[in-house]
C-alpha cells in the first residue's frame, strides 16, 4: 500500500510516519485485503490536532475518517478507530450480500462546477437565471449497484452520492435524509 502522510503547518516526523504506516496498515489489512493507497493529513486548529485519512480500495470504494484530539497521536488513534469501524461495516455488508465485486468499479468523467452564492443586493436585471460559475473541475461518477452506492456514501462520510446505476446505466442519487434514513433518486422510475 502506498502512503502519503502530510502535515499542514505542522512537521510530521519519522516516528509519527512509522506509527501511522504500521497502525493504519494493520487496520486496513484486517478488513480489506487489497488496499491501493492511503492519504493521511495532519493539521492543527487552535489547541486541537486534526487527522484526516482516506483509503482507496482496489474495488474502487473509498473510506474516509477524521479524528480530533489535543495530542497528534491521539488524533490519529481517533481517526484510525473510525476507519476501523467503517471498514468492519463494509466487510460485514459484503458478507451479508454474499457477493463480492469481481471487476473494479468503472468511473465516468463528468464536469463539476462551483456556483457563486446569490447575493440579493448584487442581483441585476441582466443576470437573469444564469448563475456565475466560480470554478470548473472534473469529477468521477462511479458505476455501482444501489447497495454499493449507499455503502460508498457511508464509507466516505458524504451526505450525497451521484452514481451510474449498473442495472440500467442511468444516473441515480443516494442521499442522507434529515430523519436519518437514506433516500434514493432514480429519474427513470418517475412514471
From TrEMBL:
One of its GO terms (molecular function) is ribosomal small subunit binding. GO terms for cellular component: cytosolic small ribosomal subunit. It comes from the Bacteria. CDD domains: RaiA. It holds the Pfam family Ribosom_S30AE_C. It is found in: Cytoplasm. Required for dimerization of active 70S ribosomes into 100S ribosomes in stationary phase; 100S ribosomes are translationally inactive and sometimes present during exponential growth. This is Ribosome hibernation promoting factor. It comes from Pseudothioclava arenosa.
Amino acid at each position: 500500500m502506498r502512503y502519503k502522510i502530510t502535515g499542514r503547518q505542522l512537521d510530521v516526523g519519522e516516528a509519527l510516519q512509522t506509527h501511522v504506516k504500521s497502525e493504519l496498515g494493520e487496520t486496513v489489512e484486517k478488513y480489506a485485503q487489497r488496499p491501493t493507497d492511503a492519504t493521511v493529513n495532519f493539521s492543527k486548529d487552535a489547541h486541537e490536532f486534526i487527522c484526516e485519512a482516506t483509503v482507496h480500495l482496489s474495488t474502487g470504494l473509498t473510506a474516509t475518517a477524521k479524528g480530533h484530539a489535543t495530542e497528534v497521536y491521539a488524533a490519529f488513534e481517533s481517526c484510525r478507530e473510525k476507519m476501523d469501524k467503517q471498514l468492519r461495516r463494509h466487510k460485514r455488508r459484503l458478507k451479508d450480500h454474499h457477493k463480492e465485486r469481481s471487476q473494479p468499479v468503472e468511473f465516468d468523467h463528468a464536469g463539476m462546477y462551483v456556483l457563486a452564492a446569490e447575493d440579493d443586493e448584487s442581483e441585476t436585471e441582466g443576470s437573469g437565471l444564469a448563475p456565475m460559475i466560480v470554478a470548473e473541475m472534473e469529477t468521477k461518477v462511479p458505476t455501482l449497484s444501489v447497495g454499493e452506492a449507499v455503502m460508498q456514501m457511508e464509507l466516505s462520510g458524504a451526505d450525497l452520492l451521484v452514481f451510474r446505476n449498473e442495472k440500467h446505466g442511468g444516473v441515480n442519487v443516494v442521499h442522507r435524509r434529515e430523519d436519518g434514513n437514506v433516500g434514493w433518486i432514480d429519474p427513470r422510475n418517475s412514471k
